[in-house]
Amino acid sequence: xxxxxxxxxxxxxxxxxxxxxxxxxxxxxxxxxxxxxxxxxxxxxxxxxxxxxxxxxxxxxxxxxxxxxxxxxxxxxxxxxxxxxxxxxxxxxxx
Length: 95
Known about the structure:
Layout: H1 2-8, E1 11-15, H2 23-34, E2 43-47, H3 59-66, H4 70-80
C-alpha cells in the first residue's frame, strides 16, 4: 500500500497520536529503503505529538497545542503542494 501511494502521489503525510519513532518513522524508513525518495519527487511529512508536557484539556485543545488539528494538517499539505495557505478555502472545525 505504501509503495502504491508513493508511486501515485507526490505528497505523503502521516498523522499519529504517538511521538517520534512511531508509524511515520516506519513509513519513512520503508520509503527510503524502497528508493521512493531517491529522485526527490516525493515529499513526506510525519506529523506527531511533540515530546512535551500538555496541560489537561479537551482532545481538540490538546491537538491544537500539538499542531495536529485539521487546519494544521491542511496547511502542511498545502505547503508541500506549493499552494498559498491563505488562498485556500477553510473548512469549518468540529469541536
